[in-house]
Amino acid sequence: MKDLEGWKKVLTDQDRAKKYREYITGWEKKIGSLLEWKLPEPGKYRDDGSPLSAVPFAVKDNIAVEGFKLTCGSKILEYVKAPYTATGVKNLQDSGAWVMGKTNLDEFGMGSSTDNSALQKTNNPYDTSRVAGGSSGGSAAAVAAGIVPFALGTDTGGSVRQPAGFCGIYGLKPTYGVVSRYGLTAYASSLEVCGVCARTVDTTRSVFHAMRGLDEMDQTTIDFETVSSGVKTVGVLKVEDGSLSAEVAASYETSIARLKKLGYEVREISIPAMDYVVPAYYTIATAEASANLARFNGMRYGLSPIFAESPEDLMRYSRNMGFGEEVKTRILLGTFVLRSGFQDQYYVRAQKIRTLIRQELDEIFAECDVIMLPLFPTAPFHHGQSELTSFQQKQADVYTCLANMTGSPGLAVPSSLEKGLPVGVQFMAPPCGEERLFSVAEELEKVFPAPRPAGYSEEWRS
Amino acid sequence: MGDVLVNDKYETFVGLEIHIHLLTESKMFCGCKANYGDEPNTNVCPVCLGYPGVLPTVNERAMEMGYVVARALNCRLSRKTYFERKNYFYPDMPKNYQISQFQEPVGVEGYMDFEFGDEIKRIRIHDVHLEEDAGKMIHAGDMSLQDFNRAGYPLLEIVTEPDLKSGEETEAFLRAFRRTVRYLGVCDGNMDEGSMKCDANISINLPGAGLGTKVELKNMNSPRFVRRGLQYEAQRQASVLDEGGKLIQETRLWNENRDITESMRTKEMANDYRYFPEPDMPPFCPDDAFMAAVEEAQVELPLTRKHKLMRKYSLSSEQAEFIHDEKGNADYFERVLALGAEAQSVYTWLSSDVQKELNLLNMTLTRSPLSAERFAELLRLMEEGQISGKIAKQVLIDVFEENEDPSRIVEKKGLSQISDPAAIARIIDKVLGENEQVVQAVREGEQKQKGFLVGQIMKETGGRAAPALVQKILSEKLS
Ligand SMILES: [Zn+2]
Fold it and tell me: Which superfamily does CATH assign the domain made up of A2-235+365-461 to?
């Protein structure tokens, strides 16, 4: 718990709290990771000695925390206050941790750059002209900059892991159902889960175990059954030439070499169903999104016009003003694939592909303890998505959305700095195999710990 | 009215979609009180208001009630039922989708028997499924307000096959259905208060030609309006066909003020509900204990009960109809009989004096001060000659007013019959002594004056003297 020890006085010690405020303000001018933040009044907070007690953390702004807004990065919810607290957050608060702020995101979690936030721009701490990734870009950037030791994100198709990779930190997408979704603003209910961005493997593990657990408010939560954590064999996905940028390909090779050097048995694997992952993923995600976002109609809360002729008009105005282009596109796509008469062609078929992918991965996990695969085809790209079109960005989700389709846990691990930019790599394990991921990541961490961007400092709190 | 006319030429097909509010403590998917009559928006929480991030959790009691009804309607029960999202916009539906069931409802392919005239009819049940209710819009001037107390209220929908043949038959079926859900204790069946609602679909066609063009009929708030709406609609459709016109598939509303149906929307404007399985709740797989509880909750259904009452206690059909209408009354009836009372006498009292008293006090029998034990005691006191029928009626009123046992009232008020000849003779002597002129007149042959003496004797005893003894002793004394 060395990483967290150093954080324990930033809320309780007046001098350090003042420096903390300055440190946050300094970074926020550069990266804009937080939509809202506040520190407790000096002396109001105590450390009871438990590992997470008096440790500050940030929460992605699509997760409900009472006392904060719940904007989801959208105009339609810009002034909405959360009337309750998400179970995962509540569990951490019960362990003594303190929510210091809410982080920026792509609107409703739809995107992989955080540029789709309707409220604020978030920059990569390593190069402010570049994105922090997304959709949990604010959480990843805040952790990378050393504003918090960890932050919560949500992962629907890679939204925790990809920005963690872009920002050079660890990003865990837990097994589906192990962490409660109560309080997570739904985008694609059957795919998503609350995850963790953190600077060390140890912190990632502590936070994961503190927030997980059966929840009577979420009937899809499952009991966590630890599978053996020993890792000997690592399946490494064979990547076609040209599908990764030169930097990412080089970094991938670096990680493979490291695994071999650490004594793991490395086996090359292929996943034939991979070709269908992205279309199937977007079919399911948008279908669920079209229903999940239907509740935002300007009637009970959220943006709405002062006057409307009819309830239908009120809803139309609210949505037209309140939703961004990417959100509207996905709602329309989802409505399209669920039309009666077309379900077999789209939604049902996507579910069949999902089953097929699960089967292929089951076969692989019968031979390999964990698998390694890339996170994203490129290093952090520039704002404005000049390098990738919206369609290419979706195609680029192929490596991360695999875990969401199967429900398996996935962990982003820092792999290297390429031309000064962080590049990460991803590990996946069978369901409830989180400990295997931590085990490999810890070995790699000894060789290559999370890098630090210029301006990162721990001195103010030591 | 219309039925006869239509039936001459066309065959009518009616199917129903009946919604019942289940009598659960809490709502379908959250812990809020299921009480929609309260102050607006007091029984609400983030879940039933559809706040971002909330998830539904299924109310097991509602699930059980759903299975209990499906079982009572002879359905094939699902061993793995699940919810789906039914997507459509409705201003007072918080999530803009309704959590309902579609592919795997709690029960399918059942039937219900009911009496129509002298016949027993069988109506096939397509399916029984659970869902949630929406809130309520209140229009105030140029504003619209919303009350979400009812949002998330557990609803059970029962869908029949188009087996009903007329408005009258449909009304009879609905009444029998209402009685059934009340017997099962899952719904109070009040159509005027909205805890039971019924939409109908109706088509007509030449005999043997199968179903015609279906028209959905809504907004009928009582079994009577269902009958009248269907009668009107059958006749309207017949007129259209008679004039060589074509019917269109549409939804029409019953206008109870004008006694007509009016078009609401045509098929082209119908919603595409885009059903898909609810990802927020796992399928529900009832275990053996659950199924045993469903079995345990089954009761003798109204029709069976009625026939039993007729057979076992020799009641007429009308008498049994009256007794079996409420399960509580039928149970009460049988309990009084078990305590030794006689069926015809119990029926007579229940349908006249007891009913009168209940109406007067606006009470139900089972919640009145007249428990089965007290009622049986009252009848026994009368049977044993301790009180007369006339006194018994007075005691009945006292039981209602004073909430005491009949024997206690009789004792307290000294109402028991005087059947000791010596005591009666003493009273007669007293009356005769006070009315010497009348006695003289009777002895001289004016027999009608004897009635006056009997009246005086009864007055003297507060009506308690055994009438036969009074007659006998008086005659002896006067002869
Ligand atoms: Zn509620």
Answer: Amidase signature (AS) domain (3.90.1300.10)
